[in-house]
Write a structure and sequence with these properties.
Layout: H1 10-14, H2 19-57, H3 66-74, H4 78-91, H5 98-117, H6 133-151, H7 164-176, H8 180-209, H9 214-232, H10 254-267, H11 275-291, H12 303-320, H13 322-328, H14 334-344, H15 351-375, H16 385-411
Length: 412
């Protein structure tokens, strides 16, 4: 997520409703319709193939399952601590598997190199952060290691949100810059504060209510980022550099933009926002799934559904909000993927839950996030991830209660 911010007039630019504007929007959507259809067909076909094959793979145990990793960490096994470290890197995308993380890391560096070279095949690059990507990655790794050192005793309770520093420490590096003093401050403060806040929310509120565990992280990030930003104001070296200017991503072949942005939006779940890193993550995730279907996606067995939901939600969101992408170069379409992933990772894989979840994720979040920015009169004094998470956890909480007390009783 690049260090760029909303223009005050964006709403006026985006939501024009005159007849000429409507006609232009209809034409612009036709530009990406073939890519949209291809993406959705691919996602559904992949889901059908994987669900057909999965029963044949259930006996595979060539890699530990998520439950074994969790139990190993609770018992203090150092090898499982290493596995947990790698899983944390892709837990933001709800995959949480070592092979997926390795694939994401390798392709993330490839994407950063392509971005720095200005390659037309860079996809979304690493969301404009190619020059500081190595610093982002190293700092993230150090935050995960430090988090385990500080909070490994919390494993006695079960799952702990150590991965949350991927969302906070990384955005601090992006927002404040890669200078050593700033990075060290972001690393220490972000790591010390993030995990206990999320942990308290998880076991104090979210888990007892039966809500998706990610809501604890989402609320925690919404609290930690502005609080740490206020603290950083007391530190004279924590200055905010001028925002970077970026080109409109739709100024390229429209099919290439669409597919690249769908994958890039999925990549925003781990902050990198990278087309190629997402490809690497999915390839690694599928390898993990073949080795043991209960390894990725928290051992739920729903990994095929997770991939399909992420791809279809992302594709539908970009189709709906493509006129906005074309006019302003940005729409918060990735937020719906976070929401949809959290829901399908928590509740039964019924189409009565999955289909409306995809629709809500695709339709609601792009305008909702901008409305939240407007309500809070956001001017760029802190990283916007906290306001994005505010929108996500609000809708996710409301829909979760509807699912639990409205939809699931009807399903029996």
């Amino acid at each position: 997520m690049e260090n760029t911010f909303l223009d005050e007039d964006m709403d006026k630019q985006v939501y024009e409703s005159d007849a000429g504007g409507a006609a232009a929007q209809a034409v612009s959507r036709r530009e990406i319709m073939p890519a949209f259809i291809g993406t959705v067909v691919f996602a559904i076909a992949l889901y059908a193939l994987m669900t057909t094959v999965q029963p044949m793979l259930m006996g595979n145990d060539f890699i530990y399952d998520f439950g074994a990793m969790m139990a190993g960490c609770m018992e203090g096994d150092p090898l499982y601590y290493v596995a947990w470290f790698f899983a944390d890197l892709t837990e933001g995308s709800f995959i949480a598997a070592l092979p997926a993380s390795i694939g994401m890391i390798v392709m993330g560096f490839v994407a950063a190199a392509l971005e720095r070279r200005g390659s037309p095949w860079a996809g979304t690059g690493v969301a404009g952060n190619g020059k500081i990507f190595t610093v982002m990655f190293v700092t993230t790794c150090l935050s995960l290691i430090l988090g385990q050192v500080l909070y490994d005793g919390l494993f006695a309770s079960g799952w702990i949100p150590t991965f949350a520093t991927v969302l906070t420490v990384q955005v601090f590096v992006i927002f404040y810059g890669p200078e050593l003093k700033k990075v060290a401050t972001s690393l220490v403060v972000g790591t010390i504060v993030t995990c206990p806040v999320c942990y308290a929310l998880l076991y104090g509120i979210v888990s007892p209510l039966g809500l998706p565990l990610f809501i604890a992280v989402s609320v925690g990030v919404a609290i930690v980022v502005p609080v740490c930003s206020l603290l950083f104001r007391l530190m004279p070296w924590m200055t905010i550099p001028a925002p970077a200017e970026g080109a409109n991503p739709t100024d390229q072949p429209k099919g290439r933009f669409f597919v690249g942005q769908v994958l890039g939006d999925i990549g925003q779940l781990t902050i990198w926002g990278s087309t190629w890193a997402t490809v690497g993550m999915y390839v690694g995730g599928i390898i993990s799934w073949v080795m043991n279907p209960l390894s990725p996606a928290y051992g739920s067995g729903n990994f095929p559904l997770l991939i399909m939901v992420q791809l279809v939600t992302g594709a539908l969101a970009i189709l709906i909000w493509y006129p906005k992408w074309k006019k302003t170069g940005m729409a918060f379409t990735f937020a719906g993927i976070v929401f949809a992933s959290a829901i399908v990772s928590t509740y039964p894989p019924s189409w009565a839950i999955v289909i409306p979840t995809i629709l809500i994720g695709a339709v609601v979040f792009a305008p909702l996030v901008e409305w939240v920015f407007k309500v809070f009169r956001f001017k760029g004094a802190y990283h916007p991830i906290c306001l994005i998470q505010l929108a996500i956890f609000t809708v996710c909480t409301a829909w979760s209660f509807i699912v639990m007390y409205g939809v699931m009783p009807l399903l029996g």
